């Protein structure tokens, strides 16, 4: 009887372990199905239906439902996947998977998914805590692959917004989960993504080392190896190694075809369009695009399809097939822009503007530049808000620490006073001595507090000064210019913006980085900033506006003197080559300048906000770029009796110039 009871008790104890083993096996099998669903959604959905368990505990049911939602998304059945997400939300332990599936649905639809992914990760991460991944993945409650899905979505949005350090942290956490779970396929993909992020932070050697490690991890897995080679192409392309990028993509394409992955192969061909285009292999680029497009459309891969249309448009422009290029751009415009893709889209517009300008299509180039300017402004505003929030958080922390220190000192003083009172009752003479010591202690404490407060104030001033300087060129940055404008806000409200503005853009700076490397690009930025500073007055403010753009604010400078200053800046930048480690480089710039209030009858009484003044300087800068670069365009006079007319002129600047409402002055830079 006792033996039977003991056997029954051991069997009961074995049930949780057996259930955990079944759940782990299910998750492994479902991971294989969801990976193959990327290229075979219909077949994998049938496989799920065939193997679906008749009865299952809640944790297994969540795993199978989540896999079904992933497979439905691979087949672009978004509404059906959303219904699965709703069902998951109502299951015990399924809410986090439901949020994650919702996030994946948003990503598939081309909409922001970071907020939903963060909400899912909040719950999934508690069961798979960071720093304890090896122990956590042994628990049935930790679905490390689902947590990795949430981290992948989160890092995609972080990287798209330029928050590379945060994105790297998300990737490294996902990699730790994949390694702890023994999933070499997933680990190799995270290592490849880490390489891309390291390269984006200019750590080329570390990026290449990570690619080599990822290839070793993916050895024997053609599908994972193809994806790693695709990431290798991204690293090499950003490093300016176009031939190496092409070789990596062609190798990836062979691996994808070996793995019978048509969807992935189509994505790789879409990437090859860009690689061939930059190598001048335009026919090969068009052929790769024609092969990729119908497959991407069949899989309804809108992200890659949009990128493919953009690359085909650039290829057609370079072949002078302008009507075909406009048709491709019209197709690009049909796709909704994901806010997490602002940074790459701004790069696309800059590339498009340069290509239109090289083809002599200045109106299209100007439109592309204006679009890029708008996106860059949105990106800068988002980054500025993030930086301000970070500074505010640091200051709040410092203030809290100071308050805690004061409270601690106050507590010490009170304890000392109580001790003195007790001693006063016991010892008369000793009380006097201790009282004197207490007074000395209080004085020393107050002195230390004043010194600490002085150091804190000095550190805050130093942080504020450093935050308003560009670390590369040591010029003022955009934040300092905003502070100057805030300080003049009373004057600006009363009289409007007064003074002169000059916007400066280094010509073809992207080519310097691509051909000579980022070190040469940094040397050019530093030297150009120095030459601008030397060409203007000591009282003028020189700002690194962003990227390769600079702004000069000159208070109380009339138009004729401003034109002379523009000529000095133009000749100062392009007069002599810039010395770099790659050898001397000839650098030229495009300038736009204007003196405010704008000239012309009736305009002196019009009040402009400083942001409107910057837009005017920006407009003539783009006019200088559209007219061939290495020149300065300034506003000599504007005929505008009221603010509405000024706004209308800015909306259709070309027409205003043709009708005489705006008179420009043009200066050409030094010849080669």
UniProtKB/TrEMBL annotation:
Q: Name one GO molecular function term.
A: diguanylate cyclase activity
From the UniProt annotation, give the residues forming the signal peptide.
1-19
Q: Which domain of life is it from?
A: Bacteria
Q: Which SUPFAM superfamilies match?
A: Nucleotide cyclase, TPR-like
Q: Which PROSITE patterns does this chain map to?
A: GGDEF (PS50887)
What does the record give as the reaction this protein catalyses?
2 GTP = 3',3'-c-di-GMP + 2 diphosphate
This one is known as diguanylate cyclase
